[in-house]
Amino acid sequence: MVAGRLGELVDPLLLDGDPVGGAELLPLGGGDVVEAGEDTHGWKDRRVTVPSRDQVHRAPKVLLHDHLDGGLRPQTIVDIAGQVGHELPAGDAESLGRWFAEAADSGSLVRYLETFDHTVAVMQTVEALTRVARECVEDLAADGVVYAEVRYAPEQHVSDGLTLDQVVAAVQAGFDAGTEAAGGRIVVRQLLTAMRHQARSREIAELAVAWRDRGVAGFDIAGAEAGYPPTALTPWGNGLRSRPTPARWCGTSRPSTTRSR
Ligand SMILES: [Zn+2]
Asked: How far is the CA of 132 from the centre of ligand 1 (A)?
């Protein structure tokens, strides 16, 4: 909460509220905005400076939760699907991009999850994983991200015969190439995820430890929460110094106390 008194400039990037999401707070080019009336913090009229969209875009950003299989370029999916013979719901990048956007905004969990069937299907070879990872870094760097932790479940990328270790190595090769292409302006780390419905959490945790000095920043769990409490996912028991950080969990519901924005 950094709302300033009338006439006092405030750090636009630390504004209370959501200046990025509110179009009415983003006059063309940004600038000062006087908000009249008393707000919830007791300020009477207040004058705040909001950033322009361009300023937000250029500001260095840190991204602590992103999904490698959730941000592929439509053209990449089309290219790889053609190579591996995977059938897509649309034949060209533009209509495929529309299909993904509609499925993601449909309000249907089933339709939303169907998008991952296609992204994961085209991420089953070293070449594909490396390309997707490289493009991920390039896209993040283009958005002004300077540090990112990108999660995915290695066990979902072994259906064509890769080992878990090969999967992590392929992703790291892509991250390295993307970082180099971005001139080192970004640092990207892997978060290795264990799927709740599988029984490989110990294996994935050990994989994360094995790669911790080579690009892996952490381990977490994901997937359906009903019937798969985190306590059932800790077969390594005494070997783990502390429980996984709840904020890292990703699923269909989270305890309100751990929900992060
Ligand atoms: Zn998530």
From this structure: 18
